[in-house]
Write a structure and sequence with these properties.
This protein has about 200 residues and is an all-alpha fold. It has 8 helices and no strands. Helix content is about 85%, strand content about 0%. Helix 4 packs across helix 5 and helix 7 packs antiparallel against helix 8. It is a multi-pass membrane protein.
């Protein structure tokens, strides 16, 4: 009885929750990047309610401009927000530990068998599922990220720039600067009109 009470108190501690939540995401985030956005949505938005879709989109946007994966950046950001610096560390460890364990075990057990037909066919199925997860993430991000007609203009220009061979970092930086300039310009016009 007493051990259940102690365990209950420990599991309610924010640092333990952060570690366990990101550990869970880490064990199932095959494909990384955009493929794991549905996992982050389910765990962080729907279950824990630590962030909303807009905040996830901001974390993903910020992750494109900083080193590291979306998962680690999300873990660090949410960990810092909910549990200060220690929260950022334990959340980041939670997301990293499963990958280290799984990769180590896979290479130890099946390192010589990656070229076999069975493993390659399994990877074919996994890749197909990852494409579906990425498409779902794109759809979700598109719906939550498009605010007003100016967003559609930026979207089309960025798409055109990427198809013409522009570097993704240049597209992101240009989008950020353009968005800021337009926001400042429209902000001033709105203030003048209201005076």
């Amino acid at each position: 009885m007493e051990s259940k009470l102690v365990f209950g108190r420990i599991s309610e501690h924010i640092h333990v929750q952060l570690f366990l939540s990101f550990l869970k995401v880490g064990f199932f985030m095959f494909g990384g990047g955009y493929a794991m956005i549905p996992l982050l949505e389910r765990e962080l938005i729907e279950k824990k309610k630590w962030i909303d879709k807009g905040e996830l989109l901001e974390i993903i946007s910020f992750s494109q401009m900083t080193p590291g994966t979306i998962a680690i950046n999300a873990a660090t950001h949410i960990g810092n927000t909910k549990g200060k610096a220690l929260g950022g560390v334990v959340a980041s460890l939670g997301i990293i530990v499963p990958s280290l364990l799984i990769i180590t075990i896979l290479y130890y057990v099946a390192g010589n068998h990656f070229e076999s037909d069975i493993v390659q066919k399994a990877f074919t199925g996994i890749r197909a599922c990852l494409v579906v997860m990425i498409c779902r993430s794109v759809y979700t991000l598109f719906r939550s990220g498009m605010r007003g007609s100016i967003s559609y203009v930026f979207f089309l220009l960025a798409l055109l720039a990427l198809f013409c061979g522009a570097h993704p970092i240049l597209v992101i930086v240009t989008g950020g600067i353009s968005g800021f300039v337009i926001w400042k310009w429209f902000g001033h016009r709105t203030k003048k009109a209201s005076i």
